[in-house]
Amino acid sequence: MTSKHKEMAEWYRRAQVEILDSMDEELEMELDDDRLTMDGEEGSSIPRNLYFKELFRLQGELVKLQDWVVANKVKVAVLFEGRDSAGKGGAIKRIAQRLNPRVCKVVALPAPNERERTQWYFQRYISQLPAGGEIALFDRSWYNRAGVEKVMGFCTKKEYEEFLRTVPDLERMMINSGIILIKYWFSISDDEQYNRFMMRIHDPLKQWKLSPMDLEARRLWEAYTKAKETMLERTSIPEAPWWVVAANDKKKARLNCISHLLTQIPYHEIPHPEITLPARVHNPDYLRGPVPPEMYVPDLY
Question: Does one domain contain both 14 and 163?
Answer without folding.
Answer: no
